Amino acid sequence: MSEIQEATVAPQSLSAKDDAAKINALVAYGLMVVGMFTGIFWIVGAMWAIVKKAEAQGSLFEDHYSNIIKTFWWGLGLSILGFILAFVVIGYFILLAVWIWSIYRIIKGLAKITSNKAYTS
């Protein structure tokens, strides 16, 4: 095959379970993106991932759910610490760092899942 023909070959199709796991993870990522600016959707996205994680067990995208849940819990814990320390300036730096770190993990997850790859691949 020529290079052009190789580039146009359709990617391997996903099983029904993988497809459902991908869609649910995309919903959770989308909710978390909106939640970066509104707050409540951050929680909704994490809860969606927690509820749907069992359905994704054994699928290609299973570790995306772990990424979403870990990002939520670490972000929540460090944000609480940042709010507590906000009366001294260091808290604002913690909050900014948590926000940047969360954006990185969500964008990395979205980049991997739209390429049909596991989060840790």
Please sum up the structure shown:
The protein is an all-alpha fold and 121 residues long. The protein contains 5 helices and no strands.
What does this structure look like?
The structure is a single chain. The chain is an all-alpha fold. It has helices spanning 3-7, 16-38, 40-52, 62-84, 90-114. The longest helix has 25 residues, at 90-114. It starts with a helix and ends in a 7-residue tail after the last helix.
Indicate the low-confidence ranges by residue numbers.
5-10
What overall geometry do the principal axes of the alpha carbons give? Answer: elongated
Main sheet overview: none
Distance between the termini: 28 Å
By DSSP, the count of extended strands is 0
Which properties best describe this structure?
74% helix; 121 residues
Task: Give the SSE map.
Layout: H1 3-7, H2 16-38, H3 40-52, H4 62-84, H5 90-114
Helix pairs in contact: 2-3, 2-4, 2-5, 3-4, 4-5
